Structures are given as C-alpha cells and as structure tokens.
Amino acid sequence: MAEKEMSVVRNLDVKRYMGRWYEIASFPSRFQPKNGVDTRATYTLNEDGTVHVLNETWSDGKRGFIEGTAYKADPNSDEAKLKVKFYVPPFLPIIPVTGDYWVLFIDDDYQYALIGQPSRRYLWILSRQNRLDEEIFNELVQKAKDVGYDVSKLHKTPHSETPPEGEEGPKDTKGIWWIKSILGR
To answer: Which segments cross the bilayer (predicted)?
Structure first.
C-alpha cells in the first residue's frame, strides 16, 4: 500500500505559534529518559525571522534542556516545513545537528498541534495546556494514522498537577538525548 502523501499546514501564523507548548505524547527515542516528565517546548521569534527553540524535560527532579533555532526549509513556500538546528553539546555550540519539523495539523485557535517528519520515525502531539481532551487527542492520533504513522508507538508524556513555572530545579548537564532523538539514532 502506497503511503499517503503527508500534507502540512499552509500559511502557519508563526507569531501565533510562538510561546510554550507541552508535549502530550510522542514517539519515544531510546535515548530520551524513560522517566522524563513535564516535557515542553518554548518558541520565541528572533529578529531575523528565525525561531529560538528551548526544549525541556525533568527527570529524577533534574531539568534537562537544549536550545536551538528553527527556520523555514524553503523561504518561498507557504508550507509549514521547518528545519530545527541544535548544537552539540548544548554548552559548546560547535557541531550543529539539523532535523525536520513539519506542522501536520494545528487547530484554528493554535491550542494543539500535530508535528511530524517525512521519515515518520518521529511524531509529537503538542498542546498549550499540559492536559488535552481525550476526544481531541484521539482525533490527532487518527490524523497521524491516516498518513502512515504507526501510532502504536505513541507514548503519553506524564505531567505534574502543577507544572514547573520557570527554569528551577537542578540542571541535568548531559542533555544529549535531545540531540540523539533529533538525529534519529
């Protein structure tokens, strides 16, 4: 069976997309901490039109994070196909690692989104709140399934009743799992 073409969002309003998103579910990377909780991404628009990316997760009470830059793969296209570039290791910006970030679906109010990659090895369900209505969650899962994702690999991300506000918590200096998950290794 030929895989259905993956359609992406057109004319994404980047300004509205900025801010904090919580990871509701994802395809786990084997390098990601199995016990990672409260995983979230915060996007901030840079003056040059690129996007500053901050990914955070908490594991064993420690905050792991990595920062990067997102930009349109094709500046002349209206499709929401982005590239995200991280630097490895996070504290020595020497080796850039680039991954695909395709916005497959976003609701009209920019409250929840489905993010994928052409390889279909990675999938994220993001929400502005750290909880997502089950019905909406199931709709997003179905959308992913319709374009050829093996949704049995989706793992729900645990979230605390009260998510961390800022960047408190001891630092996890390893942080390398983000890179490896982006690289798909």
So the answer is: none
Which pTM was predicted?
Answer: 0.84
Kindly indicate the confidence band of residue 96, based on its pLDDT and cuts at 50, 70 and 90.
confident
Residue 134 and residue 147 in contact, taking contact as beta carbons nearer than 8 Å: no
CB 42 within 8 A of CB 57: no
User: According to the model, what pLDDT value does residue 168 have?
Assistant: 52
Beta bridge partners of 171: 63
Compute CA 157 distance to the chain's CA centroid, rounded to the nearest angstrom.
Answer: 12
How many helices and strands (H and E) does the chain possess? 3, 10
Strands in the chain per DSSP E: 19-26, 37-45, 51-59, 62-72, 81-88, 95-106, 112-116, 123-127, 155-156, 171-172
